[in-house]
């Protein structure tokens, strides 16, 4: 599949000019473009999750997320982040608390009710299938994570449309428009699921640091209005799920990192 065949029809359809090199991800193909004088990002979804994510971006209508300029079929034309700030850089350079608060603010906007029905979504119960499989095969920490997840899933609180993949690289600097989210999944459930990811983020080298963990649990609980114990339960459940996903991807090292986060959460819950 050539770049011309992927992007060409959409460049023509929306009168776009390429403005950078293509970006290839497992689920999509992206191309920086310009529509007249306006910088934008053209995203072509390759898998179903990304296609539904495009619909969710359109539904959010630029409130807490990048603005969708146009959407049709597998393609989304959206606002491009032109700011220079990075939440990952902030988190690793003395502004971890501020980065977490920015992420919590973004999530609060995304979780807010909207006047129109949401696009098709999947509940969190099937979302945890990989953790159930890992618990059956390996037991141990996975079984502990699953037991906590099942309790949370049985009696959800504050059910919202979730982002589903909220982390430091999915909220970008949009200059005057502030920090806005990109790349959602199609999932609905208790809002604590999204906040847990801020603490578990496997791309964050400091995620397994006990001092950082304890501090960010407090910061996120305060900024989100979540009860700290409930947040820790979601961190335990989410870390187990994340570890199970990494095992499915044959990334044992990343899985161990997430299990270490689960251990930190379990220790705090037992204290």
UniProtKB/TrEMBL annotation:
InterPro entries membership: Kinase-like_dom_sf (IPR011009), NH2Glyco/OHUrea_AB-resist_kin (IPR006748)
Q: Pfam families under this entry? A: APH_6_hur
What does the record list as GO biological process? secondary metabolic process
Molecular function, one GO term = phosphotransferase activity, alcohol group as acceptor
Q: Which domain of life is it from?
A: Bacteria
Descriptive protein name: 3'-kinase
